[in-house]
Write a structure and sequence with these properties.
The complex is a heterotrimer of chains A (294), B (319) and C (442).
Chain A (H helix, E strand, L loop, with lengths): L2 H14 L1 H33 L3 H4 L14 H9 L2 H32 L3 H15 L3 H13 L6 H25 L3 H9 L4 H30 L2 H6 L8 H6 L10 H22 L2 H12 L1
Chain B lengths: L33 H27 L19 H7 L2 H33 L5 H7 L2 H4 L2 H12 L5 H8 L16 H25 L4 H9 L4 H30 L2 H7 L10 H11 L3 H31 L1
Helix pairs in contact in B: 3-8, 3-10, 6-11, 8-10, 8-11, 10-13, 12-13
Chain C lengths: L2 H26 L9 E7 L4 H17 L3 E7 L5 H10 L6 E5 H9 L12 H6 L2 H4 L3 E2 L2 E2 L2 E5 L2 E6 H7 L12 H11 L12 E3 L6 H8 L8 E4 L2 E4 L3 H17 L15 H5 L3 E7 L3 H7 L6 E5 L11 E3 L2 E5 L6 H11 L2 H11 L2 E2 L2 H4 L11 H7 L3 E3 L8 H17 L5 H19 L2
Parallel strand pairs in C: 1-2, 1-3, 8-11, 13-16
Antiparallel strand pairs in C: 3-14, 4-5, 6-14, 6-15, 7-11, 7-12, 9-10
Helix pairs in contact in C: 2-14, 8-10, 17-18
The chains are: A mainly alpha (294), B mainly alpha (319), C alpha/beta (442).
């Protein structure tokens, strides 16, 4: 069936069903609102907390709107810790490692799907095993290796760790997306004499966009939020990342400097949200946009 | 149109067929030719150095009495750690908690995320905002998530008790995180909350694999929502669902940080996850050998469960 | 077709990031000037703003006075210092000067990661800090840290509720006995609106860390839980060891003078209820005064009272694990690092650090400083209690962390919650518990 006729018929059918649709739509919006309340209310609470005074935070009846909103917590947070520096470091580390991870995962995932062999099967098994083994036991040998590479207390060293850290997910998920790309397309390109790299770039990659974006988001957020590696691998105060800085607002026995913590945490959450807002369109636009516009 | 034209041929069953044998086959190393190696190596080398190496080393500790401290030399002790493990009732008990936790969180994550992904795939107004807000849990660093939820669950000053009380659902404030029967469900809710965004994103991206034409065709045929889902959407989404569910299960079984911030494993060990044991054994008591044995035991258990779960996909892989 | 942007945008981003990474790598990677000056890393766990300020000021003063030995202030966190230290010790990259607390030193000292400070510290410092305190950091004859700050547990009291109930206000000279405390808690417990539910509890025990409290408070009734028998550590749980735990159990499960729900809370979690008159007394560490002062509503009256006494000379005794300063065995400049520690803990500096952390200095000279014996904010109560502080019995016991996490914490939680009785608790702590300790003493 050709796409054009399918769409015309769909449009006619749509008109007759509009009434039922409205009810359906309302239900969908209601469900979506419920979801968003569940998922986003802690952020609202965080924002509200960040504008409250210590007295109000210790109050027994919490309110959503601060009674006497003030910026004191933001001031205190910036005074106490080098937040801008940390945000820059985090952005650098997360951005670079996400881009590198995706860049090297795509060709590898492609080979793992299209050229089944002992190596690629071992690779697939490895991906899962590496996610099963306790991280705590890997930290110390990893530390020693990085030390020999003179990569302790260096942001490039941390970037390398994050790349490897997000590769299993990237490879595992991208395999699924590559499998969904029709082989016939590549075969056509191969017949035209295109090299494998060209085929990958001009045929497979554009079709992978949603998967790529999902993977990119994952790699970025994982690195942005990662805490343990950053804690043990970085020493210099000026190299600390955001997630490590945030724990400095937490004290002994679970005591926390709530107001400034909330302020700093809100600022730490913003870049990821911004990143999502920018990328979310691409999450679906790849193939769909191609189909609609073509 | 060039890209989309062959798409209607892209029905399940066409995927993963073996590559055509070419003359290049002669120049292969380990079943891969030069071009394939060239594409594989940039990912392979860092993995070998920074993942395979440390991991094999870590696993090998399971057969030694490795400890923190440099005063005593490490010795090979065979399977002693594993035979000790068989009598470690606390560790075995925590497996029950770990399995309940991992199953519940993974299942709820999948069901809720699937619903959300389907909604976000619709052409609704403010979709961009909804998509961004749906990822809020992902954007918040773990330590903040833990502390925020502790505030939400706080017995005296928590927003949850406050809300439930004003709705008239409870008479007196509940102690969510310290009550022996509420603590595990309470942390499971947080686990689901925290893990939903990545599942949603993956499924949302996976939904783009559902051929539009098929969906529309089914629509015109007058198929109901449920039938459209089971006959068109689900078959195309299934590989992605399997992949993310497998990973989610591993991750959930292996996670303990969030729960630790919330309850420290209490009350009375109700929320002590098995990975917490391995962590404490290694980092708090410095018993690396024993911790590695715990790690391997967990790998074995998860591997068996996963093999059952993924047997179909694995069979496809072997073919 | 949207092919163009998807392909070039990541590529451009990659280039920008790679460049930035390169710049960052070059710009920040310098190891400092190579002109004979020494740079020492000081890992500080100071948390409260005043304390961070006091520490940084002292570091600046040191750097001004010692151009050859530069000290770099590195901020750590109590929350994760153990993991951070263990990794860097094993990787051979530890900070030179390490701030920690005595209970965390045992394994690091036995592991050979900390320097023995016996010959590195000036004799004046050795003399100024009482032997009791040095006992908390001495293992196998070596001194592995300078104990410099410590704090007793005290009762933070809602002044108005105590006045309403007309109870006798205790002092360090004439403290409540535990029996009296039980009666007072009953007097303070009220059902104000008469709906059959308690509105004000006499006391709220925050027991998110039940073990150290249960052990340390047992000293007041002559208990200690950990007994040394021919060089071997053994847990015993007799009447003297369990008296305070039994009282807490009674208050929660029989008298109804302490809420069950606070048992899972950390100290800070009990504050909102305290300010709202829900709890009249809070047993908290001395430094919690800072949070109380910062968070109390305007006009809220509170006071600092000594913990109840078990009677006799040792009635106010309690165990403590002081904060410590240690030197890494791997440090290339151990003497210089020890000199800096001596500088930080000099009596006048110790006063500044103590005030910054709302804690007590161990130094005898510092403790006598008039600025600490003010009535204000309960400082004097703390200073008067200093003489009653003893090394916590858990210090130096190998295997204590494992005993605590696996056996004692769940056992005490269940006991205080009323899920098991004293007999079960004793059996858990001693039978299963000693099996763990034995493994470390083979």
């Amino acid at each position: 069936m050709s796409t054009t006729t399918a769409r015309t018929t769909a449009r006619t059918a749509e008109r007759t069903r509009r009434v039922g649709r409205v009810a359906g739509r309302t239900g969908q919006y209601a469900a979506l609102v419920l979801y968003l309340v569940f998922l986003a209310f802690p952020l609202l609470w965080l924002i509200s907390t960040s504008f409250k005074s210590p007295q109000e935070l210790a109050s027994i009846d919490p309110t959503w709107i601060p009674r006497e909103p003030s910026l004191d917590n933001y001031r205190a947070a910036f005074d106490a810790q080098p937040l801008l520096r940390a945000a820059f470091n985090s952005l650098l580390v997360a951005g670079t490692s996400a881009v590198i991870a995706v860049a090297i995962a795509v060709p590898a995932a492609y080979v793992m799907v299209r050229h089944r062999s002992r190596v690629t099967r071992a690779g697939t098994a490895w991906i899962l095993v590496s996610q099963m083994f306790p991280l705590v036991l890997i930290i110390i040998p990893l530390f020693l290796i990085l030390r020999n590479l003179r990569m302790i207390d260096s942001l490039p060293g941390l970037i390398m760790v994050y790349v490897v850290w997000s590769l299993p997910f990237a490879l595992w998920m991208l395999q699924g997306y590559v499998k969904a790309v029709p082989r016939s397309l590549e075969e056509a390109a191969a017949v035209d004499g295109a090299s494998r790299l060209t085929t990958l770039r001009s045929v497979v990659l554009p079709l992978l966009t949603p998967g790529l974006v999902a993977t990119l988001m994952f790699a970025f957020v994982t690195a942005w939020n990662e805490f343990f590696f950053a804690l043990v691998l970085l020493k210099s105060p000026e190299k600390q990342t955001m997630s490590v800085i945030l724990t400095l607002f937490v004290g002994d026995e679970g005591a926390a400097d709530l107001g400034p913590l909330a302020a700093a945490a809100f600022l730490a959450t913003l870049p990821s949200l911004l990143f999502f807002a920018l990328l979310q369109r691409r999450l679906v636009s790849g193939m769909l946009a191609g189909a609609v516009k073509g | 149109m060039s890209l989309t034209a062959p798409r209607d041929r892209a029905v399940p069953g066409r995927r993963g067929t073996p590559p055509p044998r070419t003359p290049r086959r002669r120049k292969q190393a380990l079943g891969l030719d030069h071009g394939a190696w060239f594409l594989l190596l940039p990912a392979l080398i860092p993995i070998l150095v920074l993942s395979v190496g440390p991991l094999l080393y870590g696993a090998s500790l399971a057969f030694t009495d490795s400890q923190a401290g440099r005063t005593e030399p490490t010795q090979f002790i065979g399977v002693t750690n594993f035979s000790d493990l068989r009598f470690d009732d606390l560790f075995l008990d925590s497996f029950r908690v770990g399995l309940v936790w991992a199953f519940c969180v993974t299942a709820l994550q999948l069901v809720l995320a699937l619903g959300l992904a389907l909604l976000l795939d619709q052409n609704l107004r403010f979709r961009w905002l909804a998509r961004t807000l749906a990822l809020v849990p992902w954007a918040m660093p773990e330590v903040v998530v833990g502390i925020m939820w502790r505030l939400v669950y706080h017995q005296d000053a928590g927003i949850l008790n406050d809300t439930l009380a004003s709705l008239g659902l409870i008479d007196s404030n509940l102690d969510w995180l310290t009550n022996f029967s509420l603590a595990l469900p309470a942390v499971i809710a947080v686990g689901v909350w925290a893990g939903m965004p990545q599942t949603t994103v993956v499924l949302l991206a996976g939904l783009q694999n559902v051929p539009l034409e098929l969906r529309e065709a089914a629509h015109i045929d007058g198929a109901g929502v449920w039938r459209r889902f089971t006959t068109v959407t689900w078959p195309a989404l299934r590989p992605v669902v399997l992949a993310i569910t497998a990973l989610n299960f591993i991750w959930n079984f292996n996670s303990f940080g969030l729960v630790y911030i919330l309850t420290q494993g209490g009350p009375g060990g109700e929320t002590r996850l098995p990975m917490l044991f391995a962590y404490e054994e290694a980092f708090k008591y410095g018993q690396f050998g024993y911790a590695a044995a715990m790690g391997l035991a967990m790998v074995a258990v998860i591997a068996v469960l996963l093999a059952l779960f993924l047997r179909k996909r694995l069979r496809e892989d072997v073919q | 077709m949207r092919r163009t942007p998807t392909r070039t945008a990541p590529a451009r981003a990659a280039a920008v990031f790679a460049l930035a990474a390169l710049l960052a790598g070059c710009g920040l990677g310098d190891e400092g000037p190579d002109d004979g000056t020494v740079t020492l890393d000081y890992l500080s766990l100071a948390w409260q703003a005043e304390s961070v300020e006091a520490n940084k000021a002292l570091v600046d003063r040191w750097n001004a006075a010692n151009p050859d030995v530069r000290v770099r202030y590195v901020q750590g966190s109590w929350d994760n210092v153990h993991d951070q230290l263990l990794t860097s010790f094993m990787g051979g990259e530890a900070p030179d000067i390490i701030h920690n607390d005595a209970s965390d030193l045992t394994d690091f000292a036995y592991g050979g990661y900390l320097a023995d400070l016996t010959d590195l510290l000036p004799p004046e410092l050795r003399a100024d800090i009482p032997e009791q305190a040095w006992g908390t950091t001495t293992f196998d004859g070596g001194v592995y840290g300078v104990p410099f700050l410590q704090e007793p547990r005290v009762l933070i009291a809602n002044a108005a509720l105590l006045a309403d109930a007309g109870v006798r206000i205790p002092t360090t000279d004439d403290p409540w006995t535990w029996e009296e405390f039980e009666d007072v808690a009953a007097d303070l417990t009220r059902d104000t609106d008469g709906d059959g539910e308690t509105d004000t509890y006499g006391v709220a025990w925050s027991m998110s860390e039940p073990v150290s409290q249960s052990v340390n408070l047992s000293l007041s009734t002559g208990g200690q839980l950990f007994y040394r028998d021919g060089g071997e550590n053994e847990v015993r749980y007799g009447a003297a060891d369990s008296a305070v735990a039994e009282l807490i159990h009674r208050q929660v499960n029989e008298d109804g003078t302490a809420p069950r729900s606070s048992l899972g809370m950390g100290g800070s979690d009990t504050l909102p209820g305290f300010f709202a008159d829900r709890y009249a007394l809070l047993p908290l560490n001395f430094s919690f005064r800072q949070q109380v002062a910062q968070q109390a509503p305007d006009g809220f009256g509170w006071s600092v009272l000594p913990m109840p006494s078990g009677g006799g000379d040792e009635g106010l005794a309690q165990g403590v694990a002081p904060q410590t300063l240690s030197v890494a065995q791997d440090s290339d400049h151990r003497q210089a690092a020890a000199d800096f520690i001596a500088f930080l803990t000099r009596a006048d500096h110790a006063v500044e650090l103590a005030r910054g952390d709302w804690m007590l200095p161990t130094s005898t000279t510092a403790l006598a400083d008039p600025s600490l014996s003010t009535e204000e904010l309960g400082w004097r109560t703390g200073v008067e209690l200093a003489a009653a502080l003893r090394p916590s019995p858990v210090l130096g016991v190998r295997g204590y962390p494992e005993w605590k996490d696996k056996i004692a914490t769940p056992a005490f939680q269940e006991y205080y919650n009323g899920a098991v009785d004293l007999e079960d608790l004793r059996e858990e702590l001693t039978d299963d518990g000693n099996r763990i300790l034995d493994r470390y003493q083979r």
